[in-house]
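Course exercise 7: structure representation. Students receive a sequence record and must write out the corresponding structure in token form. The form below is the worked example handed out in class, using Sugar kinase (313 residues). Read each field label carefully; the graders check that inputs and outputs are placed in the correct fields and that the protein name is recorded exactly as given.

STUDENT ID: A-19
EXERCISE PROTEIN: Sugar kinase
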Amino acid sequence: MPHTARATATAGPAPRLITIGETMIMLTPEHAEPLATATKLSLHPGGAESNVASHAARLGVPSAWVSVLGEDVLGHRIRTSIELHGVDVRWVMSDSHAPTGVYFKDPGHGVLYYRRDSAASRMGPSTVASVPLEQAEIVHLSGITPALSSSCADLVEAVFERVAGSGASLSFDVNYRPSLWPGGAAAPTLLALANRADIVFVGLDEAQSLWDCVTPEEVRAILPDTGRLIVKDGDVGATEFNDGKHVFEPAIPTDVIEAVGAGDAFAAGYLSAALRGDATAVRLRAGHERARLVLLSTSDFVADPSPAPSSLT
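STUDENT ANSWER:
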């Protein structure tokens, strides 16, 4: 898989959070119109792991994002945009033999993906060979990556093996995407990965689709080995299970415009608060607050209305 590293700006502080995964170019109709009638589209980067890194960077956490982009104008645009959010992109590579993926948001109807054989689908263990995963405090992955290709599944396994016992925490967002998984492969694969992680985020709706769980307690029962388990239940709230205890924090009432990307924002808010050493309820509340920014927009990522706070050290 011929990846070509590109020089980036001088690196900032060592990242406390490292995220790994695909980012594509997202095209969204203006004014939340359906694609069938829209005449104008806005263009932005969109990807679960870069969203988490971008939100966390805005919250003052030194964050890095690792991926592979096409050696094309869309890849260049993504790299520049993510870096402008304050994210360290020194380990983002370019592939001249595969394109950057693209997807369209169709408000009210879903999402259309054009990512087959994308540059990121060619990621593998070599993608993280030079990345100091063990030196981070949290390494974050999602269940999207192992579904992209067999080499991406190998990448995820390599990351889990390297982080285990290193002192870093492995954060895993289940992020179930049915269209990416053949047959019944998703349920056992994602369950096994989640049970090996230190921090797990999963929507109750995802858990029901994957494992027939209808309550947060049932999710905990099938994920007994996870350290911190955060079960999100939409506009109801989120529950964290840890050390035999659980804490529920209600969601913030919101007039939702678009939900895509809100889970990434929640994860970033939660992880940033965890790195501050905040209590469980505060971590969950920070997740809800960050998610609300995205729920009020058609974009996957929404920056703060004010400048990013100073870095957490």
